[in-house]
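Duplicate of #3305? Posting structure anyway:
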């Protein structure tokens, strides 16, 4: 039976609409096919696909960029640290191991519980550089299955050799030259994060509107987390610094200035030092801290630092000792009102620094507050010591006028 003209017209319209809908949906279907293909490719070449770092101060955006842009794996951010998470590390560590080891171990256990199957341990310049193997062994004894990407491995092979040795642990088919380019972008992000933090520490204590710097800081971190390349990173930095500089300040001409030195992990990480940065800023102090990734890893020149502190150093005392002494001398010679030496309990290199810092204190008449942290350190006790130190510096400064 042949269709009538109206029926034929209706069928023609339906056919045209179907073709148009298929045409419009084609890009989505193509994108879906590409996404499925990429997921299949990742599943084929990455047996492990979700990576986590341990918690470490403000470097989370750089960790995220490294995982997603260098390793081509998913990044698992950890939630705010809790006492329970830290206790896992304490309970599964030796009593005599340093507090950073316990924090990191607890973070790794929590990351694995949250679904991570890749752990990234970049260690440190001290014996933390050897802790990756021990932490891996402990976690396996606890029943976890994962791979450990340990930055300490292959470092003697140079940058390219290290990239092949370490990066291919996660992605055997990684494009090493591309990975190196992205690593340079990671370094640039670290420099910018440290620069922003330096500005924050020096000025946040004098903001007119309370909380302005913290709000700008959160926005800066959020912007950094969305970056996909070095151009994005530079743009995020420019915008963040402009926002910082636009915050109204009520800063005296000669504020109390305190320089922080000490063991790198504890001196930087606010969980480890119980929020030392914020406690000092809240007191209206200008804070300086040379200890950061940029100065210890990206621009570090130990012989030059030792020359600058030749009155106090003859040999490299290890890890961050030279930086501790050189920074202390710089701050003291620059007329700073006080120094704070922060370290974890049992940190041998920084214990060796204490007699040297006492000599710097004597030579320049600058007070030094020595803070040693362990898993039992009291937040209230720290507040009391900082308040007493601040009062002493204020009285000393007033007396000298």
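Output from current build:
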């Amino acid at each position: 039976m042949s269709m009538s003209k109206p029926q034929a017209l209706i069928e023609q319209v339906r056919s045209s609409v179907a073709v148009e809908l298929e045409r419009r949906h084609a890009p989505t279907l193509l994108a879906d096919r590409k996404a499925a293909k990429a997921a299949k490719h990742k599943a084929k070449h990455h047996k492990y696909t979700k990576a986590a770092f341990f918690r470490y101060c403000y470097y989370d955006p750089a960790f995220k960029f490294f995982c997603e842009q260098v390793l081509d794996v998913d990044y698992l951010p950890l939630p705010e640290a809790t006492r329970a998470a830290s206790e896992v590390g304490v309970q599964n560590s030796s009593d005599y191991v340093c507090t950073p080891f316990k924090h990191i171990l607890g973070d790794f256990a929590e990351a694995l519980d949250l679904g991570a199957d890749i752990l990234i341990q970049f260690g440190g310049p001290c014996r933390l550089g050897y802790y990756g193997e021990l932490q891996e062994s402990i976690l396996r004894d606890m029943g976890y299955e994962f791979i450990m990407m340990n930055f300490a491995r292959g470092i003697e092979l140079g940058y390219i050799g290290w990239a092949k040795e370490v990066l291919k642990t996660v992605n055997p088919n990684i494009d090493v030259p591309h990975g190196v380019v992205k690593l340079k972008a990671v370094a640039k992000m670290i420099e910018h994060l440290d620069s922003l933090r330096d500005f924050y520490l020096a000025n946040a204590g004098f903001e007119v509107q309370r909380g302005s710097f913290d709000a700008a800081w959160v926005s800066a971190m959020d912007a950094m987390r969305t970056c996909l390349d070095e151009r994005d990173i530079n743009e995020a930095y420019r915008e963040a610094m402009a926002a910082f500089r636009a915050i109204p300040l009520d800063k005296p001409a000669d504020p109390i200035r305190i320089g922080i030195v000490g063991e790198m992990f504890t001196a930087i990480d606010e969980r480890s030092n119980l929020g030392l940065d914020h406690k000092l800023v809240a007191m209206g102090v200008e804070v300086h801290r040379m200890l950061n990734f940029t100065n210890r890893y990206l621009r570090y020149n130990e012989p030059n630092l030792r020359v600058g502190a030749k009155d106090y150093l003859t040999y490299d005392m290890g890890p961050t000792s030279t930086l501790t002494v050189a920074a202390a001398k710089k701050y003291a010679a620059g007329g700073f009102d006080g120094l704070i030496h922060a370290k974890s309990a049992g940190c041998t290199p920084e214990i060796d620094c204490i007699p040297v810092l006492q000599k710097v204190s004597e030579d320049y008449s600058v007070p030094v507050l020595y803070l040693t942290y362990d898993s039992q350190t009291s937040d209230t006790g720290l507040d009391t010591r900082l308040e007493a130190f601040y009062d002493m510096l204020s009285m000393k400064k007033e007396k000298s006028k």
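Confirmed duplicate; merging threads. Residues 294 and 300 are 8 Å apart (CA to CA). The chain has three domains: 50-171, 175-251, 252-401.
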